[in-house]
């Protein structure tokens, strides 16, 4: 089972890289262009995803959900980062995740999350990796839709494409 979670996380990293590469091919103003959509700009989406991912690794490392949610207050500051700096932040965080996830026993590590709205969720890191990957996929879809609204095409980031390309590389 641990192999799947690591593969999913590697897919998530690959898909983010695809998005960053595509964004860097487009005119620079696209990154911050205001748009009537679920998010106000692509930089806004990426800041949200980054802070969410940062929050989860903090929870995995023993911080509270309240602490993780407080990271959302850094949205404006994070959103102000340029695309190259944001990409570097994403991939530094990915390295932190891969190190954590590859350590023996961490995927099975039990996690208790006290929901600020009440209640307790008992889960483990393995189940939450699926959530993190799904969350990233959802928001890469937002970026794809936003690019189309602005008159640009996105790039393939489907898990099936990732598997196909990975298999082709390993031949």
Automatic annotation (TrEMBL):
Keyword vocabulary terms for this entry: Metal-binding
Domain of life: Bacteria
One matching Pfam family: DinB
Cross-referenced InterPro entries: DinB (IPR007837), DinB/YfiT-like (IPR034660)
Segments traversing the membrane: none
Gene Ontology terms for molecular function: metal ion binding
Binding site for a divalent metal cation: 48, 135, 139
Coiled coil: none
Entry's family note: Belongs to the DinB family.
Protein's recorded name: Uncharacterized damage-inducible protein DinB (Forms a four-helix bundle)
Source organism (scientific name): Halobacillus dabanensis
